[in-house]
Design brief:
Elements lengths: L11 E3 L6 E3 L3 E5 L3 H6 L10 E5 L4 E3 L2 E4 L7 E3 L1 E7 L15 E9 L1 E2 H10 L4 H4 L5 E3 L3 E2 H4 L6 E6 L2 E7 L7 H8 L10 E3 L7 E2 L5 E6 L4 E7 L1
Parallel strand pairs: 3-15, 5-11, 6-18
Antiparallel strand pairs: 1-2, 3-4, 7-10, 7-16, 8-9, 8-15, 9-11, 9-12, 13-14, 13-17, 17-18
This protein binds manganese (II) ion.
The site of manganese (II) ion has 7 residues, from loops.
Length: 229
Amino acid sequence: MGFVLPPPAAPSIAVVDSEDRCPVRRIFCVGRNYADHAKEMGGDPDRELPFFFSKPADAVVEDGAQIPYPPRTSELHYETELVVVIGRGGRNVAVDGALDHVFGYAIGNDLTRRDLQREAKAKGRPWDLSKGFDHSAVVGPVHPASRVGHLARGYIRLDVGGERRQEADLADMIWSVPEIVSILSSYVALAPGDLIYTGTPAGVGPLRPGDDCVATVEGLGALEFSIVR
Ligand code: MN
């Protein structure tokens, strides 16, 4: 048996200090998970439950990527985030056992067409094309939790062209990693290779062709990428 069309490549990402790669099944993202960012986007961080959106798995691009400025936008924004990599699937996962489902962590950037997202919000339309476009899921190599432990605090930063644009602490997340895994698993069955972008701190802003970005999370090294024409 064959395929009637060329089958797409299976998306995957690097694992630190390993020749092996980590498969990417689905990409989930949490909206507004830092109070300061919720406020800058016009939300109320005290009352809103976490909400989720998705990106296609083949939107992943890795460390060192040269990312073409996407079409149909004049407001490409960075969002630096901690990415959770699911290692063991499950549904209705309890908060207490949720970290047992986490294989590891990576640094990510949830690239966003902010102008299209603003229009979608205003018109009650889906976010898909403002969030899930080609090359929109920047992600560094996976650090297994067996080596780095589970991350609940530590700096998260973004420098663009050598200037600090975002700086916060993972402890500032409104919903913790175990809570996010638990809540998300009440909506969908999680499976190995699922990525969860856990939300961005305040300071989101525009990227232009020629910008060199360096995102860092304490314990995870750095993720570098550039925007090109
Ligand atoms: Mn985000």
